[in-house]
Write a structure and sequence with these properties.
- By secondary structure, the chain is of the alpha/beta class.
- Helices cover 28% and strands 24% of the residues.
- Strand 8 and strand 9 form a beta hairpin.
- The protein is globular and about 65 Å long.
- The protein starts with a strand and ends with a strand.
- Belongs to the NADH dehydrogenase family.
């Protein structure tokens, strides 16, 4: 359908079914200076911008990684391993690896020691400046590059468009990833507030994106063709953390999302994670791979009177 052009450069595009997959972006959490001075790795352009900055630093300098979640841990260890001349510090609000089992936490600390990553626990950053960060306890830390990994947020478009969302802006969906307020809209990935098979919300992750995406496909094809809609699994069973390219942690979790006592660490988890990333990169460059080859006949012609409009930026 051809969009209707608007004088301001925008346009309106009608749809019968909309899949909302805008994902998430870095959350500055209202901390002054993050938007102006910090780097993030939530998207390819911003990650490349960080790489350019590190390239200009040459063989030395201080890099601060703010945030001790999985993204922060992976970022700090990757930079430390690939650029051994840099001094890398990981700033954690609480205990490093608090969500991991005791054994996995020990493995993580050994990896940080081996790679020369300095860990500052129970430290909060209250402002980011061009060449330093200011902590809540009054101390300042010099930094040639500050990487912000202290959380993720979703785009406010869904809330602004009138869809039912949670407090953080995720679209509330049913078991088939269909918006509970707008039946022609499906949300997948980080944008969706979806309950897993254990009754708990799926966390923002690439694994959740894959599961919710498959469920949405089943639902859309089923409803358009009149077929029974299959329920795909919606699970979150492990955290897979890379610690550079030659080390990693595979931490399984229970139905409550808590770490199980056992874990696997070393080169095998690292190779598995590398394979996952390589597959994901290949899939993004081959978007039609895996698409259904059999054509299904629509159960009924779409009712134009029920179509909704979506205003999109040209």
């Amino acid at each position: 359908m051809t969009p209707t052009a608007a004088a301001d450069g925008g346009g309106e595009l009608g749809y019968g079914t909309l899949v909302y997959a805008l994902g998430s972006h870095g959350d500055d959490r209202g901390v002054p200076g993050v938007a102006e001075h910090a780097f993030d790795v939530a998207a390819r352009p911003s990650a490349l911008h960080l790489r350019e900055r590190l390239d200009r630093r040459g063989g030395g300098g201080n890099v601060l990684v703010v945030g001790d979640g999985l993204t922060g841990i992976e970022t700090a260890t990757e930079i430390a391993e690939s650029r051994p001349g840099l001094s890398v510090t990981l700033i954690a609000r609480g205990e490093l690896g608090a969500r991991l089992s005791a054994g996995a936490r020990g493995h993580l600390r050994q990896a940080c020691d081996r790679l020369g990553v300095t860990v500052l626990e129970h430290t909060s950053v209250e402002a980011v400046e061009a060449t330093r960060v200011r902590c809540a306890d009054g101390t300042t830390l010099a930094s040639e590059a500050t990487v912000w990994t202290a959380g993720f947020a979703v785009n406010p478009i869904a809330a602004a468009g009138g869809l039912e969302v949670t407090g953080n802006g995720q679209i509330v969906v049913d078991r088939t990833m269909r918006s509970v307020s707008h039946p022609n809209v499906y949300a997948i990935g980080d944008s969706a507030y979806a309950l897993g098979d254990n009754g708990r919300p799926l966390p923002m992750s690439c694994a959740s994106a894959g599961y919710t995406g498959r469920q949405a496909i089943e639902a859309i094809v089923g409803r358009l063709t009149g077929r029974k809609i299959a329920n795909t699994k919606l699970v979150y069973t492990y955290n897979h953390i890379s610690l550079g390219r030659r080390d990693g942690i595979l931490q399984t979790v229970d139905d409550e999302g808590q770490a199980k006592p056992t874990y696997k660490g070393g080169w095998k988890p690292a190779r598995i994670k590398a394979g996952i990333l390589k597959t994901a990169l290949w899939a993004t460059s081959h978007p039609t791979y895996g698409m259904p080859k059999r054509k299904h006949r629509l159960a009924a012609a779409p009712d134009a009177s029920r179509r909704e409009g979506a205003r999109v930026a040209a």
